[in-house]
Amino acid sequence: MTTRTGSARYEGLGKAGKGYVSTQSGVLSSQPYGFNTRFEDEPGTNPEELVAAAHASCFTMALAFALEREGFSDGTLETDAKVTLEQEDGGFTITRSDLVLSATVPGIDEDKFQEVANGAKEACPLSKLMNAEITLKATLEG
Question: The domain containing residue 122 runs over which residues?
């Protein structure tokens, strides 16, 4: 079992408040976030951006290991994730995460590539966590 931690602090309330997010590893340390970084263009991060990065990295790693299990030993995988936050029923909900994958995997055919990529999308722990529509557009290069 693996457990990782993150933390957040919010000083003030509502739009006027300022938040700070940190991760156990220290990669993020008191990184600013708040209304302006979430809904406007102020520098800093926001929860949806962090979820998108987490989902992209989780899926990409799941696919790398799935391809290795299938006997492939080389390749390059690049994934972008776009997380959508929508206002619903007086609150907000992450309604979808759209994954866009570009991959080079020598020796794989298109059907096998799509099968393994879609399996990784379903098996990724963050995909399992989300109560949202998850799409995948997977392109095999070269």
Answer: 47-140
